[in-house]
Design a protein that fits this description.
It is a single chain. By secondary structure, this protein is of the alpha+beta class. It has helices spanning about 35-40, 50, and strands spanning about 20-25, 45-50. It has one domain. The protein has a two-stranded antiparallel sheet. The structure holds zinc ion. Zinc ion (ZN) binds next to helix 2.
């Protein structure tokens, strides 16, 4: 799903496989899941479960 190794945007911890994450992002104006996936990759901020608490 991610090209680069995803990191938590708060603690910079590397996200492990199957780890539960939260993504903060703007909802894209364009329609469809394809655009949403692209937005997460390029604009989404990944937050690990620990930092989200
Ligand atoms: Zn974190």
């Amino acid at each position: 799903m991610f090209k680069n190794r995803p990191q938590c945007s708060v603690c910079n911890k590397e996200i492990q496989a199957n780890e539960e994450i939260f993504v903060k992002m703007r909802y894209p104006e364009a329609k469809g899941m394809t655009e949403i996936k692209a937005f997460i990759q390029y604009q989404g901020k990944i937050i690990c479960e620990e930092c989200n608490k």
